[in-house]
Amino acid sequence: MTTTQRIAVVTGGMGGLGEAICRRLADDGYAVMSMHSPENRQVGAWLEAQQLLGYHFTAVEVDVARFDSCAAAVESIHQQHGPVSVLVNNASITRDASFRKMTQQAWDTVLRTNLDSMFNMSKQVIEDMLSLGWGRIINISSVNSQRGAFGQANYAASKAGIHGFTKSMAIEFAGKHITVNTVSPGYLRTRMVEKVPPDVMQERILPEIPVGRLGEPAEVAELVAYLASERAAFITGANLSINGGQHMY
């Protein structure tokens, strides 16, 4: 890594969307830190697979739900690589259940991972961006934050809260050449979505999407890469939908 190479951090960097974002940012010349949960046992295999494709990422373990874990993870990046220019808050989980069956643990776990992580990670890198005089924070939300979803009161609430965070951050740092934006994807062709039963996919999900197909992670990654670029300097505080027309507002 050269001293002029910008560093990009992607949480949830080894999932379907996270992987696509890591690759696309690397294509733009960023040194990419792919953050993963402590429970991930496939880190070595994932890194090897990426290397075979020509991508040399740095893996960083973090529990995004814990502030101290985020602080330690980013401090290790500072010591080994330098200040962070781009943060993509992508890590999220689901614990679906109808509201009557949803437990407090399921609520708390999703809110901590999906929403608290925005604060936990952004807090660690904002001083870097201020010192560099440039920065990009891109928060990954969801179409279900905008339209709601049965059995996802916790997930929809956590993802809806993200954009309020985005807008406040955008206002505070707009004058410092730091932009903060939300990206709200619809249903993507990821390993998780491909586990949906075929009848549910064909009868319930696809008919709701006007373009008639799932989105590709690479398509969302293109949008993220644009927001992370110099070209997107006039976009901040935006919530950019990329859902095939499934929800329009």
Structure summarized in a few sentences:
By secondary structure, the protein is α/β, with parallel strands linked by helices. It has helices at residues 16-27, 43-52, 67-80, 104-132, 143-147, 153-173, 198-205, 217-227, and strands spanning 7-10, 31-36, 58-61, 86-89, 135-140, 178-185, 239-242.
Write the layout of secondary structure elements.
Blueprint: E1 7-10, H1 16-27, E2 31-36, H2 43-52, E3 58-61, H3 67-80, E4 86-89, H4 104-132, E5 135-140, H5 143-147, H6 153-173, E6 178-185, H7 198-205, H8 217-227, E7 239-242
Parallel strand pairs: 1-2, 1-4, 2-3, 4-5, 5-6, 6-7
Helix pairs in contact: 1-8, 3-4, 4-6
Observed structural traits:
Rossmann fold; 249 residues; 8 helices; seven-stranded parallel beta sheet; single chain; alpha/beta; 7 strands
How would you describe this protein?
The protein is of the alpha/beta class and 249 residues long. The protein has a single domain (7-242), classed as NAD(P)-binding Rossmann-like Domain (Rossmann fold), CATH 3.40.50.720. The protein is 44% helix and 14% strand. The chain is built from eight helices and seven strands. It has helices at 16-27, 43-52, 67-80, 104-132, 143-147, 153-173, 198-205, 217-227; strands at 7-10, 31-36, 58-61, 86-89, 135-140, 178-185, 239-242. Strands 3-2-1-4-5-6-7 form a seven-stranded parallel sheet, sandwiched between helices. Helix 2 links the parallel strand 2 and strand 3. Helix 1 packs across helix 8 and helix 4 runs parallel beside helix 6 (153-173). The longest helix is centred in the middle third of the chain and has 29 residues, at 104-132. The chain is globular. The mean pLDDT is 96.
